[in-house]
Design goal:
Elements: H1 3-15, E1 19-20, H2 24-28, H3 38-43, E2 49-53, H4 59-67, E3 72-77, H5 80-92, E4 98-102, H6 108-111, E5 117-123, H7 141-150, E6 151-161, H8 164-177, E7 180-185, H9 196-199, H10 204-211, E8 217-222
Parallel strand pairs: 1-4, 2-3, 2-5, 3-4, 5-6
Antiparallel strand pairs: 6-8, 7-8
Length: about 220
């Protein structure tokens, strides 16, 4: 994407009522004004709150919001030029139960308060296979602790990925730590019983993986 296009998207994001772009200082050094109040101030209801981490173009957040109008969804990504597409579509189509937050996932505890979040979706994250990159792996122990700090006690985390490595790593870690694995499947399109919200929503990149005959894996779990 050219720099002109990016700048145009950044500018347009600033005009969308469903896009929030706090800087690091606003989150870390202050009580962010939406922390603990996303339902009342943004969505104007008390419906369950669901996050998508690393939401990319916002396709999954958008599709979930359309499928579940009685839940609130927030797509989170540091790359605002990417989720511009999802934000723009939701404004144009008046989908009011989805919003987008531009921030690093490492700062998630500063944006949400304890027990504020009902579910977290992690869709096709970078598996960070190299050992030096493990601190960025979105299901490592540090990230699980961050999620636990904002999830309700019975909150659920979903991991959908094309990476067998990420699937195996996460499953092993969850079992090792004694967390509750609700469902695990290493090939959701070839095995019966996969949740419909997993197989019924496909992102642009997921369709490419399927064309390459790449298995799509899925885990849902609780951090106990």
């Amino acid at each position: 994407m050219g720099s002109k296009n990016k700048l145009k998207r950044f500018k347009e994001n600033e005009t969308f009522p469903n896009v929030f772009q706090p800087n690091r200082n606003e989150l870390v050094n202050n009580d962010y004004f939406l922390k603990g109040q996303w339902r009342t101030k943004v969505f104007k209801n008390e419906n369950p709150l669901v996050l998508e981490l690393g939401c990319g173009k916002g396709e999954y957040s958008l599709a979930l919001a359309q499928r579940y109008p009685d839940r609130n969804f927030i797509g989170i990504d540091i790359k605002g030029a990417r989720f511009w597409r999802g934000a723009k579509t939701s404004v144009e189509e008046n989908i009011t139960n989805v919003a987008f937050l531009r921030t690093q996932i490492e700062l998630i505890e500063y944006a949400f308060s304890k027990n504020e979040v009902d579910e977290i979706w992690i869709t096709f994250p970078d598996p960070q296979i190299k050992y030096k990159r493990t601190k960025h792996r979105l299901t490592n122990i540090q990230f699980l602790d961050r999620y636990k700090s904002i999830l309700k006690p019975d909150g659920i985390v979903h991991l959908k990925t094309d990476s067998e490595f990420m699937h195996g790593y996460t499953l092993g870690l969850l079992h090792g730590l004694g967390h509750e694995v609700l469902y695990a499947n290493h090939d959701v399109y070839r095995q019966e019983g996969s949740p419909e919200e997993v197989t019924g929503i496909q992102t642009f990149y997921e369709l490419q993986y399927l064309e390459q005959d790449k298995p799509i894996t899925y885990i849902s779990f609780k951090i106990t």
